[in-house]
Amino acid sequence: MNNINQQSNYITATSSEKASLTKAVFQASAFPSPSGIRSMNSYFIFFHKYKKALLFAPLLVVIDVCCEIVQPELMSKIVDTGISQKNLSFVYQIGGVMILLSLIAIVANIGNIYYSSQASVGFATELRKGMFEKIQEFSFADLDRFSSASLTTRITNDVNILQEVIMMSLRLLIRAPLMLLFAVVIAVRINASLASIIAVAIPVLATAIYLILKRGIPFFEKMQQRLDQLNGVVEENLMNVRVVKSFARADFEEHKFSLKNQHLQKMAVKASGTVILIMPIMQLVMNVSIVAIVWFGGNKIMSNTFHIGQLMSFITYITQILMSLMMLSMTIMSLSRAQASSERILDVLHTSPSISNSEISITKDLKLTQGKIEFRDVCFSYHTLGKKTLLKNISFTVSPAETVAIIGTTGSAKSTLVQLIPRLYDISSGHIYIDDHDIKDYTLANLRAGVNLVLQQNQLFSGTIAENLKWGNTQATSQQLHTAARYAQAHGFIMGFPNQYQTVLGQGGVNLSGGQKQRLCLARAILSQPLILIMDDSTSAVDVTTEAKIRSLFNLYLKNTTIIIIAQRISSIQSADRILLLDQGEIIANGTHSVLLKTSQLYREICRSQQLQPTIK
Amino acid sequence: MKTQDINANKASLSGLPGRHGRIKTGKPQHSLQTILRLWKYLGRQKLKLLVILLLLLLNIGATLSGSYLLRPIINHYIIPKDVPGLIKMVALLLGIYLISAVAATLQNRLMINVAQQTVSKIRSELFCRLQSIPLKFFDTHSQGDLMSRFANDTDNISDLLNTSVLQLFSSGITLVGIFALMLYISPELTLITLLIVPLMLWFAAGIIKKSKVFFATQQSALGAVNGYVEEMVNGQKVVEVFGYQQSVEAAFEKLNYDLRDKATQAQLYAGVMMPVIQNLNTINFALTAIVGGLLAILKGFDLGGLAAFLQYSRQFGRPVNEISSQYNSIQSGLAGAERVFQIMDEIPELPDSPDAVVLANVRGNVNFRSVTFGYDPAHPVITNLTLEVKAGQKIAFVGATGAGKTTIMNLLPRFYDIQSGEITIDGIPIQHIKRNNLRQALAIVLQDTHLFTGTVLENIRYGQLQATDNEVIEACKLAGADPFIQQLAKGYATVLQKDGDNLSQGQRQLLNIARATVSQPAILIMDEATSSVDTRTEQYIQRGMDQLMIGRTSFVIAHRLSTVRNADEIIVLENGKIIERGNHDALLAKRGKYYQLYTTQFD
């Protein structure tokens, strides 16, 4: 963020270019390719509000360059005309022009920075907004494809990188080539034959930069890999801190780390050591050119075809030219560094959400009425072309207000099955009907208002408990909050907190136990008063006694709600109206607890594994 | 904190935060102490630093004298048309520039060496310190925060050492050098520079001051946006289940536009400094040209001197600019160092007392005598707990969440030290046993099954580094892990991806048990080892555990009571106190809390 634009038009190169150059190279993964430029089209809409800034920023750079580039030539006039003819007023005039131009340049520069800040920051803002809104449309399948950590990085870091690059481009990418071009033109005009030095210096420097980078960039890539490995070791170590401590393996871990660390250090020295050569070489090329100018120019002056002032300005121009070349290559390098980020951003922007409202659903605007669910020959696999079908020919019906439990071993696709109901994933074939309408005929908003799914991962958000519960119903009164929390057996522990419903939760509800979080999630869902409530293993961390209480309260108060429960414990589900037994994506039994005990071998096995002993009643 | 979390996120995503979008963190609180402390690391390479300084002086000296030589060349050779003299001077110039190039190369190479060695040393010390910090620390510091110190902060330190330090010195010396030469060539012209430079400095200082304020506000706005994005994207599935998209978008938009306004200001101030300082320097150049012209006309000031002086005056803005531009990276480097040192200053686990013994042939008699403990001493979680366990017994802990089951088991390996009472193994208080020795006598199988990147074999050998391949395989057979390992693509040589992602939960747990088996512990702790698998898989794992428990003192914590029925003694805990104890049948007969738990579970 705090990348201050660095630019140079001074005679000797010292370390500032070196620093920025090293950094740029460091971050460059490859030379830019045309695809990067093509992708610019996708970004243009995000500049929409900032067109003026986008136009003015480069324009002002041109003014700045024009003011700056003539300075050495004006100076040479002071020397060659003013001093040699002892013309005082000429010196004042030209000097006055020089100062005036500088003042104009200051205004132009401030303007440029003003507009380019506006354009780049504005662009980043709109881009973030666009991405964030895009993600709101993502289906679960889309979300799975990216992973939330990766999406977060894309919206935050990758966008920041583009912002930086645009800020830089709006100045340097225009300034450097213009400076180069103008300086060459002026140098040729001053003395064409002397300008041939430039014709040698430019290719020499360009080749040197190219060769060094070609050698250095792979080192940086390797270094990056080693850094990855090192950080991997650290991450794993932190994650496994209990394991490391309990086996007393600190020495072992330290040894593992130090190997990777040395490994990294070697490559870091190699990589930076290579690229650092650019600066001295650049300096050398420039200085040798200056020497050449002094020699050839000096001879010309002796033969009276050249003037001392011209010699002075010529030296300035050639340094200007070589500097600009450096800046240009550096800027291009930064662009290529941004390319990876750009690709990751476009990846998000170009994803068309795999689930959206059908036209019929919008015109019909159907709402759920009863809570009847019907699966007809439903098949599902995560990837449209995937070999593995997760759910095979699922057919069953749930009547309104019925409580149906789903049980099955880990990996039998229970969660997947219930997530199809609110269209969090779309089925691959078959039909799902709710209240005798295909779920695709409901808008997503209407469908999900009627169906609430309590997900396995009990996600809460930073804010107060009340705010979290209100996700279920933004208009809920505190009376309603308390009731919902009571049903979910959460009211008791909430009231136990000093701030009760106003207790502030950390990000993700870190300050609560697993069971407490689950109960809050449950209360949040109850508050939304769904016709269909689905609970995906959502009381697993709640102790058995409390769970039993929740169950009995549900029986009492959520009489008209269709409930689907997924659970591991037989005790959680045996009182359900019906139990579906799922095994490897198929329903292999469907009936009440006592029926399944009689008919299903697998069900009996599961019961036995939980050592269900009717005798202890 | 939020920004760090984001970074952490990134870290866990790619394994590294690298340089992309690296976050420059805050400003240092105690700059001076931090600098002194960094110097302690750098100071170990005093000789190299001295050489670097000498090379730096040589380089700057050569560069500046190169520019100065223009004066004699113009005055004494070009104007008098002395060709042989010009040849000599040109050769001299060439020589000087070559020296400068060589010096610059060497100086940079050496500095990279020093910097990388230093950073590597710091990283390594940081890691070692983390290994010896008590577990309590990890309860209160997120993995993300620690990861960011490792990756981000050491990177910022690396930048500071790699370039900023050298640049600061180089710019400072150059500034002094140029000024001295200017003064030598023409004190009158130097006056102009003396007029402009304070203007530049005043401008730069003003901008930096403003910029600091705006950057801080930008940073907090950015933190808010990043934090919001992270949290919402993480909970995106919930957002969709509740159809909450519009509210979320509205809240985001507000934060986002707030960031835009603040970032635009910050960028403006940060960006404007360099170009304007340069323009000011151009004015300096112009004024010098005018006054130089006047001096030449009126006082016969030599042209060569004017040429050299003009060169210098063009060069003058650069070091000023550089020093100001290093400001940010020095700040974040120091802030990074400070955060790293903070961890290094954490108090490590107390060293073993001098009279600590090494346990040999542990039998496994474990005694808890009036043990009281609280993570926060003011709020004890375990109060006055007494428990006597004979070698080879199986003890089960049951009770509601928060009853203190896991806490008790954390005390035995001294993850936490008790506040009062005594815990002994074979009659020796655990504080008097060498810590590593104590922990090696125990094996703990936890609910979260963490594995390391590496082969199956390596992972199991983690339990006992000296174990032969055969011993590892034997352990796996005993634990019941052998059959599925054999079925993996490369058997025991199969490489596990990060945390064993390519295995099922049950398989990972079997590997954990095998790892515990190979360590041949005298005492075994199973903390909810089978809670996250379904009951049929659990039975399978149970067989492995039962094998492992034969002849060993074992402690079992389980959610599902079916797994604890065959324990020699079942301890029912409530609020850190034992409320019932006895074997399964006795406790059932008692019709107390255990009976209640058991019947609700199986009703």
Describe the protein.
The longest helix of chain A has 50 residues, at 88-137. Chain A is 62% helix and 10% strand. In chain A, strands 6-9-10-3-11-12 form a 6-stranded mixed β-sheet. Chain A has 3 domains: 17-349, ABC transporter transmembrane region fold (Up-down Bundle), CATH 1.20.1560.10; 365-454 and 532-539 and 559-612, Rossmann fold; 456-529, P-loop containing nucleotide triphosphate hydrolases (Rossmann fold), CATH 3.40.50.300. Chain A is α/β, with parallel strands linked by helices and 617 residues long. By secondary structure, chain B is an alpha/beta fold. Chain B folds into 3 domains: 30-186 and 326-347, Up-down Bundle (ABC transporter transmembrane region fold), CATH 1.20.1560; 187-300; 366-602, P-loop containing nucleotide triphosphate hydrolases (Rossmann fold, 3-Layer(aba) Sandwich). Chain B has 20 helices and 12 strands. In chain B, the strands form 3 sheets. In chain B, strands 6-9-10-3-11-12 form a 6-stranded mixed β-sheet, with helices on both faces. In chain B, strands 2-1-4-5 form a 4-stranded antiparallel β-sheet, covered by helices on one side. Chain B has a two-stranded antiparallel ribbon with strand order 7-8. In chain B, α9 (245-299) runs antiparallel to α10. Chain B is elongated and about 120 Å long. At the A-B interface, α1, α5, α6, α8 and α9 of A face α1, α3, α4, α6 and α7 of B.
Biggest sheet descriptor of chain A: 6 strands, mixed
Overall mean pLDDT of chain A: 80
CATH architecture of the largest domain in chain B: 3-Layer(aba) Sandwich
Please work out how many helical segments of chain B DSSP would assign.
Answer: 20
Helix content of chain B: 55-70%
Distance between the termini of chain A: 68 Å
Biggest sheet strand line-up of chain A: 6-9-10-3-11-12
Which superfamily, in CATH terms, is the homologous superfamily of the largest domain in chain A? ABC transporter type 1, transmembrane domain
* Unreliable parts of chain B: 1-25
